[in-house]
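Notebook B, p. 112. Complex prediction, attempt 2.
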Amino acid sequence: MRVLITGVDGYLGWPLAQHLTRAGHEVAGIDDYSRRRWVGEMGSQSAIPIVPMADRLIAFREETGKSLRFFKGDLCDRSFVVNAYKSFKPEAIVYLGEMPSAPYSMIDAEHAVYTQTNNVMGTLETLYAIRDIVPDCHLVKLGTMGEYGTPDLDIPEGFFDLEFRGRTARMMFPRKAGSWYHQSKVHDTNNVEMACRIWGTRSTDIMQGVVYGTRWDDMGSDTRLRTRFDFDQCFGTAINRFCCQAVIGLPMTPFGKGTQKRGFLPLRDSMACLTLAIENPPEQGEYRTFNQFEEVYNVTDLAEKIQKVGKTLGLNPEIRCIDNPRFEDEVHRYNPDHQALLDLGYKPTRDMDGELKAMLQDLIEHKERIASREDAVFPDIRWDGSRSRSEYL
Amino acid sequence: MRVLITGVDGYLGWPLAQHLTRAGHEVAGIDDYSRRRWVGEMGSQSAIPIVPMADRLIAFREETGKSLRFFKGDLCDRSFVVNAYKSFKPEAIVYLGEMPSAPYSMIDAEHAVYTQTNNVMGTLETLYAIRDIVPDCHLVKLGTMGEYGTPDLDIPEGFFDLEFRGRTARMMFPRKAGSWYHQSKVHDTNNVEMACRIWGTRSTDIMQGVVYGTRWDDMGSDTRLRTRFDFDQCFGTAINRFCCQAVIGLPMTPFGKGTQKRGFLPLRDSMACLTLAIENPPEQGEYRTFNQFEEVYNVTDLAEKIQKVGKTLGLNPEIRCIDNPRFEDEVHRYNPDHQALLDLGYKPTRDMDGELKAMLQDLIEHKERIASREDAVFPDIRWDGSRSRSEYL
């Protein structure tokens, strides 16, 4: 199948291009290196060194024997997008080309507007490109479990039968996002669902949990093929930040009570799930939602797991909570459904300890790189708009 | 109270400035004349002549004895917005400064992106301006009943108790909008609700039905103070288009079966409701939703009412359905709640026949202006992206 990956230079996009190519698909990618710039803006860099795209493409061809078709450009640039679609004629698109950080979106008005414009308008341009150029194309859109927020309810996969005053209709489950970034994904969800409804577009909207890990099943040994790993306050998830803190001898720092729960899945499982979604497309006009994660942990459980695994590698990080720069529920119910991918044949690997060990080993190799940017890990972007470093509680 | 009206040059904004000033409030307005440009782009003009803002402001002062503070600029221009807020320090904002047309948003990718950028980012800039400059300010935000779409359910006012698998939580009622414009209002709703939740902003989000009419209670007799009246396919509502068709001797043209139901309210009631919302602000941090309309009619009922009233004025328009350029339910349930404003003291005027008669009389005066743009009334913007004129069924 011809698969176009937007954001192919990113954490998920780069391994996915390799994984899909090895699985026999013809892959093209779009990127404008925004992620590299954003992380630079945060005073940080990928813990695992990544080479420029030109070198990535050479390594890709050497390793897989196939070329990755690469389009350098901005997903909000209409003529660029239209030309790329006309040239490659994708049968599936995996849309990873969004700004993915909640704190980055909360820095100030400029970053809020940038985030929602970049994410929502890029997706809107894509919906038009699909409608006008490749109407049968399957849009695999990356949403986030964060769209739902943490209501005191179970969470279905996107839709549910709403019973109201004696009548019932299948409706979208209400979202309750907690950052401008998460809201941008809610806006996307609403726009994509409408395109399916009125234009007959087909889409799988993936509410993905937190992806972690440095490895995937069929990764090559060429270091130029490795994917990025961020640990700064914006682009590093809690699990990434904890691992890097553990590696450079800093305490791991859950926010507030540290009892926030999230769904997690390893990078290798994310690759498997995205491939399943691509290879099992919905019907024309269908909009479906997958909640994509493997297991739910709270943030302190995670830190304790990293502590335990870290000890086997000679690391012994403390856990010290810091005041929470976010506005979020720290104590909450979290019981979202995640059945659709299992029904398609997803076999969770369920080896978090193994993944954490591999991550820590890969990061220990680059301890100096991480230590050189240790200031980037500590948060100072607050949801109230102030900018002051969190304190240990 | 110091009230800032964004979109003060528009259909609702201009009468509201007068109405609030007469009610003793200190009013300022923002506009960049976008509406005049959009209507010009559609090859049309206001049926009722409107004078340039400079002349409006002179007439305003002569009539009310007070000056309207006017800021000319774009609501997406951050420094302009910040300066206006710092200068006027509003205690309430009535946010009417959005692109309000579903068909306009459906023309093509450019118009879709323009609509969502203009509407959503303007509101986002406003939320930041409120947070940083006037945090106690009450944001009266204009949404639309169209955010809900037409689910086969009753529709509450914004929120409801969602019961799911034995648990209950108060959640936002799911939206199901049918155009990029309507989606832009859904995105706004989500953004504004979040600002209230995390920043303690206070907002009344008004899901307004279709406003019609040319007059309001305390309007002056100076023709420079009259408000615009659009009848083109984008900026004229069905009721406006029907009235203008009746006046120039064309058939009135419901779309499809003509059984689409909507909530309606006269301009004078809209002024009263917005004033009630302003004068009864929510608590700090509260986000509340009002469904604002008086009565529900289907589109053919409306045409028949106009026919009946028109006959008393010597008009005798036919009703001829045309093929529906939109993707929408033509036969559907429509039973939305609209109690909150009644609870605040709203007294519906309930005189649609009287309003229609006044409208037709005011339009008959400008029959030549309307006839000169009769091509603008007939739709050719289709929800599938094609551009071909609807045919009589």
